[in-house]
Amino acid sequence: MLSLGDRIELLEQDLRAVPPGFIMSSDLPFAIFRYDPSHPDESEWRLRREIQLLATRIQNTTSKRIHVVSLAKLYWRSNEESEGVEAVAQLERERGFRAAERQVNSYLADPDWRPLPALLIEESKAMWPAADIMFLYRAGVFAPTSYRVSSLLEQMMGRLKVPSVLFYPGTWKGSLNYMGLRADDEPLGSYRVKIYGRDT
Asked: What is the pTM of this model?
């Protein structure tokens, strides 16, 4: 397995290309950068620092604009604009954590509420696919099971045109394993996206 620095270097090379070298399909201009927050060299804080440094380098040496988007911010926005955080807290008090987590999943996934894909498209409205790139980070906010991160790619297919890199906290065991908690249901084999941090 390549080190975190090696993977960042590979991603940086692809970000400098026109179009970005990780794009394998115009319907899904995504890449996944996997890191293991439980590894001493890949902590969440180091990764956040590396993301900011990478964004600065790309913006200083190319004509591209990097937008660093917090998925945690969108998570809380979804809650607030659905029924509010207090409604979730009340549900947890009355029926327990699992019931509250299922309700949050509805907010994030159900088009009747404020789903994550819709919020992400709103974030990208003022961006131009030829000049802008999104870095999506803080995906750990969905632990343990409030949202299946790999489903974001399914839901964005054909809808998001801005090249994007999803910084994914987890391990690789033949497929992505979110936060070391579980193997994702979808190993992403049906969607051709580049994954930095797989074992092949």
From this structure: 0.90
